[in-house]
Amino acid sequence: MNFKSLALLLTATAIPQVVVAGPLAYAICQTGCNGLAVACYAGAGFTFGVALPAAPPVLLACNAALGGCMAACAVVALTPTP
After folding, report:
1. Where is 42: in which H helix or E strand?
2. Which PANTHER family does the record match to this protein (predicted)?
Protein backbone atom coordinates (compact mmCIF):
# COMPACT_ATOMS: atom_id res chain seq x y z
CA MET A 1 0.00 0.00 0.00
CA ASN A 2 1.49 3.31 -0.99
CA PHE A 3 1.31 6.52 1.01
CA LYS A 4 -1.47 8.07 -1.13
CA SER A 5 -3.73 5.06 -0.67
CA LEU A 6 -3.09 4.99 3.06
CA ALA A 7 -3.78 8.72 3.39
CA LEU A 8 -7.03 8.38 1.43
CA LEU A 9 -8.14 5.43 3.56
CA LEU A 10 -7.40 7.27 6.80
CA THR A 11 -9.17 10.40 5.58
CA ALA A 12 -12.26 8.45 4.51
CA THR A 13 -12.52 6.65 7.84
CA ALA A 14 -11.87 9.76 9.92
CA ILE A 15 -14.83 11.67 8.45
CA PRO A 16 -18.04 10.83 10.33
CA GLN A 17 -20.43 9.02 8.04
CA VAL A 18 -24.21 9.36 8.15
CA VAL A 19 -26.18 6.21 7.46
CA VAL A 20 -29.82 6.02 6.41
CA ALA A 21 -31.45 2.61 6.18
CA GLY A 22 -33.45 3.85 3.22
CA PRO A 23 -36.56 2.92 1.32
CA LEU A 24 -35.86 -0.81 1.14
CA ALA A 25 -35.57 -1.12 4.93
CA TYR A 26 -38.70 1.01 5.25
CA ALA A 27 -40.61 -1.29 2.88
CA ILE A 28 -39.46 -4.41 4.73
CA CYS A 29 -40.53 -2.90 8.03
CA GLN A 30 -43.92 -1.92 6.59
CA THR A 31 -44.41 -5.47 5.34
CA GLY A 32 -43.77 -6.75 8.85
CA CYS A 33 -46.33 -4.30 10.23
CA ASN A 34 -48.91 -5.46 7.70
CA GLY A 35 -48.23 -9.09 8.62
CA LEU A 36 -48.93 -8.26 12.25
CA ALA A 37 -52.13 -6.45 11.27
CA VAL A 38 -53.31 -9.50 9.31
CA ALA A 39 -52.61 -11.67 12.36
CA CYS A 40 -54.47 -9.22 14.60
CA TYR A 41 -57.51 -9.24 12.30
CA ALA A 42 -57.42 -13.04 12.00
CA GLY A 43 -57.20 -13.37 15.77
CA ALA A 44 -60.34 -11.26 16.03
CA GLY A 45 -62.10 -13.42 13.42
CA PHE A 46 -61.98 -10.92 10.55
CA THR A 47 -60.19 -10.65 7.22
CA PHE A 48 -57.72 -7.82 6.74
CA GLY A 49 -58.66 -5.59 3.80
CA VAL A 50 -62.37 -6.40 3.73
CA ALA A 51 -64.58 -3.34 4.15
CA LEU A 52 -67.20 -3.48 6.88
CA PRO A 53 -70.14 -1.12 7.39
CA ALA A 54 -68.89 -0.39 10.91
CA ALA A 55 -65.58 -1.34 12.50
CA PRO A 56 -65.79 -3.18 15.83
CA PRO A 57 -63.55 -1.83 18.62
CA VAL A 58 -61.13 -4.74 18.29
CA LEU A 59 -60.44 -3.75 14.67
CA LEU A 60 -59.96 -0.13 15.68
CA ALA A 61 -57.31 -1.37 18.12
CA CYS A 62 -55.65 -3.40 15.33
CA ASN A 63 -55.66 -0.31 13.10
CA ALA A 64 -54.17 1.85 15.86
CA ALA A 65 -51.41 -0.71 16.41
CA LEU A 66 -50.76 -0.80 12.67
CA GLY A 67 -50.44 2.98 12.56
CA GLY A 68 -48.03 2.96 15.50
CA CYS A 69 -45.92 0.25 13.89
CA MET A 70 -45.75 2.14 10.59
CA ALA A 71 -44.79 5.35 12.36
CA ALA A 72 -42.01 3.49 14.16
CA CYS A 73 -40.80 2.18 10.80
CA ALA A 74 -40.57 5.71 9.47
CA VAL A 75 -38.54 6.87 12.45
CA VAL A 76 -36.16 3.90 12.42
CA ALA A 77 -35.71 3.46 8.68
CA LEU A 78 -35.71 7.04 7.44
CA THR A 79 -33.90 8.96 10.21
CA PRO A 80 -30.18 9.46 9.52
CA THR A 81 -27.89 7.96 12.14
CA PRO A 82 -24.31 9.14 12.58
Report:
1. helix 22-43
2. ZYGOTE-SPECIFIC CLASS V COPY B GENE PROTEIN, ZYGOTE-SPECIFIC PROTEIN
